[in-house]
Structure formats: C-alpha cells, structure tokens
Amino acid sequence: MIVQKVPISSQKIFTVMSLVVVGTVAFDAIETPFGKTDKIIGGAATYSGTAASYFTKNIKLVSVVGDDFPGETIHQFHKNGISTEGLQVKKGQKTFFWSGKYHTDMNTRDTLDTQLNVLLDFDPVIPDSYQDCEFLMLSNLMPQLQKKVLERLNKRPKLVVMDTMNFWMETQWDTLMEMISLVDVLTVNDSEARQLTNEYSLVKAAQKILKMGPRYLIIKKGEHGALLFNNEQVFFAPALPLEDVFDPTGAGDTFAGGFIGHIAQTRDISFENMKRGIIYGSAMASFCVEKFGLERLINLTQEEIDERVQQFIDLVQFDIALV
Amino acid sequence: MIVQKVPISSQKIFTVMSLVVVGTVAFDAIETPFGKTDKIIGGAATYSGTAASYFTKNIKLVSVVGDDFPGETIHQFHKNGISTEGLQVKKGQKTFFWSGKYHTDMNTRDTLDTQLNVLLDFDPVIPDSYQDCEFLMLSNLMPQLQKKVLERLNKRPKLVVMDTMNFWMETQWDTLMEMISLVDVLTVNDSEARQLTNEYSLVKAAQKILKMGPRYLIIKKGEHGALLFNNEQVFFAPALPLEDVFDPTGAGDTFAGGFIGHIAQTRDISFENMKRGIIYGSAMASFCVEKFGLERLINLTQEEIDERVQQFIDLVQFDIALV
C-alpha cells in the first residue's frame, strides 16, 4: 500500500489557526446621563475578545493586569474560548483604571481619571502557543507596544487589524505612522481620520490614509455608522437607531471584535466578506451600548444576534431595479 | 351598436393628476469655504420642483416673486414641465432674498440677511387647473400659508408631504401643530425632531411625532443620511460620501423633491416605494451639493441619475443569508 503524502496546502485546512487579540484589560468607572457605575470590568481587548468569541473560539489574549483583577473574569474568558496564556498578572500591582463621564449627546466624554498602573511597563509576551496566529487584532494601545507584538510573531498573520486614537497622533507620531504602514486594516473614528490627514472630507481623508499603507480603512462614526474603504470601493453600515444609548464605552472595540471575529470564523478576507464583518460588528456594538460595560455583551444568544442582524438588513435594504 | 359607458374608476387611469409644489422661490447669496456667489436663484420650491421634474412632468408651482425675478428662470420652469400659473409675480415688489454663510463643517450656517419682501403679504392662489392635485409638497413656509393651500384645494390630495423648520416651532407652535396633524408625511431635520419632542433619541422623537398625526416621518440628518419611520418600520439611507460638499443650500428641498417626484411618478404610497423615494431623493441631493445653487441640478441626464442610484446600491448592499 502506497502512503500518499498530503500536500502542505491541504494540511493547512486541518490546522486550527488562532485570532490573537492585543490590548487593555481594565477597570472602568463610567458616568452617563442614565447613571454611574463603581469599578467594572473594561478594556479594549476585553470588549473585542468577548465580541469575537461569539464567532470563533480559538482566541488568544495578550494583555496585562494587576493581582487586583478578579479571577472570575479570567474564568469567563476561558469559558468564552479566550486563552489567557498571554495575559500577564503582575503581583502587587494594580490593573489599568479609566474613569469617564459622558455628555447628554453621548458622542463626547470627559476623562475623569486615568491610572496606567501595570500598563506603565507593559512588555507584551507572545507565548509559543500563540505563534499559530492567523488573524491579529491590535486594539488601541501605545504604538510601540503594538509594534513589539508584530515583531514577536514569527510569521506575519494573514490579516492585521489595528485600532488607535488621537492621543498617539499627538505623542507618538513616527511610531504610529510606521505601524499604520504595516497593517492591513486600520480603524479610526471620523475625527481621528481628519486629524491624521488634515482633510475634513472623509473621502479625501480615506484616500490619504490608504496611501499610508493599509489596504482597508474603517472609519467609525459612532451613532452615524461606519464606512469601509479600499482603493476601489466604499461600503457604509448605519448604526441601529436605538431608543436609548445607555453607555457607549467599548462600542468601538466591540465593533472591531465582531468584525475580526467574523473574518476569523470565515477565513475570508475579501471586500464582500469584510462588508458582512462590518454588519456583524455593528450588530455587536448595538448590544454593547444598551447596558453599562459588558453587561449586555456577555450573555447573548445566537438567536438574539441573528435577530439584530435581520434588523440591519431591514433597515437598509431597498429594491430598485435599474434598467 | 351599444355605446358602453366607461366606469369612473377606469376613466381615472387616463386622467393625468398633478404634483403641486408650494414654497419659496427666491434669490440667495451664499458663502462657503469654497467661495461665494452673487444673487443666484434659490428657494425651497425651486429646488423641490426642479428635482421632482426629473421624475414627473405634471408639476404645478404655488409661490410668489417680485418683478425683479428673471423671466428666463420662469421659462426654465416651463421647460422642466413645471406650470407657473400659481406663481404670482408682484409688480414693483422684490423677490424674497436670503443670504447665508456656511462654517467649515458645512453642517452649520449663519444667516447674514433675510429680506422677506413679497413673502410679507403672500396669499397663495390655487388656480382651477391645480384642483387635480394628487400629490402635494408643502415646502418650508409659514404654517398658516401651508394651511391656506390645503384649505383651498377642493379635494384632499392622495398624499401630503410637509417640510418645516425650527423657526415656526418658536413662533407659530399652534398652527404648526395643527398642520402636522393634517399631513401624511412630515420631513424635519434631526435637531428639529428633537426640538419638536424634547427627546434626544431620534427613535423616541419619531414615536412622539407619529402620535401627532403624520403616518410617515422623514428625519433628515444631512451628511449622515435620512431615516424614514412609520409606526411599524424604519428605513435608513446614507448620504453619499463625497470628496467635497461644495454648497449644502437646497439639499433638503432637493431631497424632498426627488422623494415626492418618485412617488408622483409611480403613484404608489406604500412604505416599500417610499424607501425607493428616499434613495432617489438622496441621489438628487448628492448632486445638489456638488455646485453652488441649482447649477448641478438643472442639467442632469437620466444616465447620471441612474449611475448615482447605483452608487447608493453599491454603498449599502451586503449579502448575509441568515439560516
């Protein structure tokens, strides 16, 4: 009997590749017109990873917390299929803490307190088990830390998505520009896209940003939806009109998590599939804002998600047959 | 040979019913970050009627101008299939004049000058030939004048669409409320919807406004698109992302004109068809803002409109098959 060698390309199908999510795991204290919270669990990677876990199960977290961080949340990560081998727990140190207060319009907020704590000397560790990373979500973090993660992966992932914020444009321009040139998908909000390019028109801003390196750009417009650009196409997804936006914290990270979760689940990085990812991300974000923190996001059912996606379909679909 | 009487219901098919457009015909002087104009032709009814004329030809204008108004524009109305029998030309008087300056974001503007002139004692005349009115577009105007038009039509039109503005909420609340209770479709912008209801959430505002009388509500959000509500459904159309918004003047009226023009063309007032109307209105508005005043709007081809509508289809369509 002749034993046939399986070609490498076929073997790959049987390898479960992973989604690595890098970013903050934190405590937040939030005040909105609807109320305020004590310290609750937050952080960009928490939101992104949790949202992604509804789509794919092989998620690997890179972050840092202090030993004040609750074990039950780490247990919850495991239950959600999120490995925490790359989550450093620093003895005798405190978890990153952010506190903010939203204005009536929910689009603007004041930061009341930021205690970097363990983030101050965070040096991301990539465990060997993470080297199968196929999809990489670099949530908002110091650009030099995002860079270290990319450098410490032996093989460049199939798709690298990076989020960032205005603060790094003001303090770490050069490293940020280098990172932007290295990623596949950049996500920024509308004011950040304008700040990055000195263009008011988002179309012009997108053209400039795509020249900086990324093949895809997502501009998040909060309650006004999100735009996906590449050099030839543009796609728009609205935010779901909601009776109340209770707490916008983490909505952008949840959006990114739903997006990359869908991409990792389908392993399809075409523009058409990214459009679906944008819709799934928008659906997840619409849940996120309905309650404080992660409250609404941690106990969703597939039926609820499908129903929400159907609402997006109903919201935008129309039937015009051009001759 | 027996001559059969044609039943009245069948006769109606052969009657060409009309779209009556009521509102201002004006001079504007506009300043934007891209430049400024001398006195150019403007006015809500001018924009609405011109936009509608790409969809239906039996349009009838109710308005007033002074004898300083150019005959060539009136000739242009006729060429566009817009009857001006209800356009009063006041000897020795001046046309309504508005002047405004837009800020960089193009979403806010300062009114530099308003000269009501002929509008001061405008008493709308409905010629007999207008009594076949099937669709009525009441563009933004003093509510008591909108009311007079409705009273002077012998038969209530099949669909009455009304636009209004914050100023009438502050000065003519009671008459405005009465008018809102009488129309089928109300169009307002997002801040007006909030002012009308004291609700920040547009979903809650829409629920309240629909209780005031109209069966349909359109909330215009400028560069952020438009929402269509009835008591059961909601539809959203984005604005087309443009490289430059050159001059937003008249965009809302152009949107309304494209909407009612499509409805009048198809004579179908279902929610599904109103969705198409919103897309056609959005397409027409996207042309309007590309140049000053009516410049871009007066010489469009059917191909250009179809191409623009296709851009809207491409912008929002995605393919998710839920099991």
Could you list the spans of chain A in which at least 5 consecutive residues all have pLDDT below 50? 1-14
Strand content of chain A: 15-25%
* Oligomeric form: homodimer
Total strands of chain A: the figure is: 14
In whole angstroms, the N-to-C terminal distance of chain A is 61 Å
Helix amount of chain A: 25-40%
User: What is the name of the CATH superfamily of chain A?
Assistant: Ribokinase
Task: Average the pLDDT over all residues of chain A and give the rounded result.
Answer: 94
Q: Might you state the CATH topology name of chain A? A: UDP-N-acetylmuramoyl-L-alanine:D-glutamate ligase
Tell me, what's the shape of chain A? globular
Largest protein interface, residues of each chain: A-B, 40 and 40 residues
The overall number of domains of chain A is: 1
Structural class of chain A: alpha/beta
User: Strand order of the main beta sheet of chain A, please?
Assistant: 6-5-1-9-10-11-12-13-14
Radius of gyration of chain A: 19 Å
Describe the biggest sheet of chain A? 9 strands, mixed
What does this structure look like?
Two copies of one chain form a homodimer. Chain A is globular. Helices cover 37% and strands 24% of the residues of chain A. Chain A starts with 7 loop residues before the first helix and ends in a 7-residue tail after the last helix. The model of chain A is unreliable at 1-14 (pLDDT under 50). In chain A, the strands form two sheets. Chain A has a nine-stranded mixed beta sheet with strand order 6-5-1-9-10-11-12-13-14, with helices on both faces. In chain A, strands 2, 3, 4, 7 and 8 form a five-stranded mixed beta sheet that branches. With 323 residues, chain A is an alpha/beta fold. Chain A has a single domain (16-316), classed as UDP-N-acetylmuramoyl-L-alanine:D-glutamate ligase (3-Layer(aba) Sandwich). The A-B interface holds A 104-105, 200-204, 221, 224-225, 227, 233-238, 241-245, 272, 275-276, 278-279, 306, 309-310, 313-320, 322-323 and B 104-105, 200-204, 221, 224-225, 227, 233-238, 241-245, 272, 275-276, 278-279, 306, 309-310, 313-320, 322-323.
